[in-house]
Amino acid sequence: MTYLLGRWTQFSLVVAAVAVFWLFPIPAGAVVGIGVTPTQVSVEIDPGGSASGVITVSNEGDVPLSVRAYAMERRKDESGLRFLDPGDPRISAARWLVMKPETFWLSPRTAQEVRWEVRAPPSAPPGDHVAMAFFEYAPPSPSDGGSKMVIGGRVGTILAVRVPGQVVEAARIVSFGLERRTVVWRFPQILGWKMKPVVWQLPWVPVANNPPVPVFAHVICRRVDRSGWRWKGTRR
Q: What φ, ψ does residue 146 adopt, rounded to 5°?
């Protein structure tokens, strides 16, 4: 097992804190919240290999809390940062992650160590696989009459798993086309001079809306004056 803490800048070091929109009555004036250490873990494991460690969850508030640990996928795309349920077990690091204990109680100002283990399947493809180890908390109902409404929530640790190997990045042309075109320049007669049209022969020209491609053209010029003298030139 190899730890790579702080190696990948593409993974944010910020704690993921997401409101869960549950309302719980607790004593007025009480402080509610938890923290996790570390906020990010990066490991490198071979297909079929495993890595393990400890995440410390601490109750920073004044009331006991019920905590549940679970894993989700972490993805970032054009729509922003998203947390998804575990997907394909072959590529989803959230499927590879196991945490114990999964549920526990935290008294005020105390901490709980949660052991985690990530085991990659033998068919795991090379590359980076990212999961979130979430810890969702909920305060209990108060025994006295005084209460106020608060929001439960969750915090998380980013688990970045790198499977070594060659990662092939490929691209393909979706569409491409060529067509024949001919450009003719016609000159007016000036002072008795007659000039034949200049013809640009463009045998292969990219069709519109396709990537530009270098094109070579032959230019054939002919000029006839009053004495019958002719000049011919070819240019590429």
A: -70, 130
Is there a cis peptide before residue 64, judged by omega within 30 degrees of 0? Answer: no
CA-atom Rg of the chain in angstroms: 35
* Residue 1, token pair as written in the block: 């097992």
Cα–Cα distance between 97 and 28 in angstroms, integer?
Answer: 38
Fold of 2-163: Immunoglobulin-like (2.60.40)
pLDDT in tens, 3-38: 444 433 333 333 333 333 344 455 556 678 899 999
pLDDT of residue 212: 47
Distance between CA atoms of 158 and 16, rounded to whole angstroms? 8
| Domain locations along the chain | 2-163, 178-235
- Which residue, among 151, 141, 153, has the nearest Cα to 34 in the 3D structure? 153
Q: What are phi and psi of 95, to 5 degrees?
A: -75, -25
CA 177 – CA 170 distance, rounded (Å): 21
What are 29-73's pLDDT values in tens digits? Answer: 667 889 999 999 999 999 999 999 999 999 998 889 999 999 999
Render the burial of 51-63: b for 16+ CB within 10 Å, e for the rest: bebebebebebeb
pLDDT recorded at residue 219:
41
Paired with 80 in beta bridges are 77
Q: CA geometry: angle at 176 spanning 175 and 177, to 5°?
A: 135
